[in-house]
Description:
Layout: E1 14-18, H1 22-33, E2 37-42, H2 46-55, H3 64-69, E3 73-76, H4 80-92, E4 101-104, H5 115-118, E5 123-129, E6 147-152, H6 157-166, E7 170-173, H7 179-206, H8 212-239
Parallel strand pairs: 1-2, 1-3, 3-4, 4-5, 6-7
Antiparallel strand pairs: 5-6
Amino acid sequence: MTTNRPTDAAPRLRVGLIGAGRAGVVVAAALARAGHLTIALSAVSDESRERAAAVLPGIPVRDAGEVARGADLVVVAVPDDDVAGLVRGLVATEALHPGQIVLHLHPGHGIGLLEAAVSRDVLPLAIHPAVALGGRASDVDRLVGTSFAVTTLRSLRPLGEALVLEMGGEPVWIEEEDRPAYAAALAAVRDSMSGVLTAAGRVLRDCGIEDVASVLGPLAHAVTDEALKASSVSAQRSVDPPSPHSR
Length: 247
C-alpha cells in the first residue's frame, strides 16, 4: 500500500484525483511519496474504487467538482474522450479557479484538451509516463527513471519538469503537434511486442515449456537492448555532419 508520506514540513500541493484509472492512482501515489497531499478522489466504478482503496488507502471519495475545488493540483485521469467535456463542466460550475494546476496523462494529446481551463487562468500540463502501469502500489517504483513526455506552455515547462523529477522520472519535452506521433510510436512498440511474445509463448507451451517467461524474458531484453543501441547509432548518424573523408 502507498500512503501520503509524512514530512516535517507541510505538503506543498493538495492533490485531487479525478478518475481512479491505472495510471491515475499510480501518479497520485507517486506525488504523495514526493511529499504532496492527496486530499480526495473521484471514482465511479466498483473496480476503480477498489483500485483506489488499494493504492491510496484512506483517501475520501467525492464527486469531481468537490475534488477540484479543494485541490491545488487536479489530476484528470479519465478516458481521453472525456477530458475536454469534464474540464468544461468544472469550469462551468466554477470548480476550477485561477492559479490551480490541471494535468492529464494521455500520450496522444497535449494541453488542447484543457483549453477551457486555460480560459480561467488555470495552469495546464500534459504529462505521460512511457511505461506500462497496472494500477498497483508497486507500480510507483516503475516511475523511477522512466521518461515522461511533458507538454505545456513554455512558461510552465519548469513546473511540469519539476513534478516529473519529484516522482523520480526523467522529463522529455514534446511539442503539442508531436503528441499524436509520440503516442503512435509507443503504441507500435507495445502492440508488436505484446503480440509476438503472446504467440511465442503459446508455441513454447505446446513444446512442453511451462515457464515461458524464463525463456523469453532474457531473449526479449537482449533483443530490445541491441535494437535500442542500433537505433541510437542511426539517430546520431542522421544529425552528425558527414566526415570530409566520406566525400
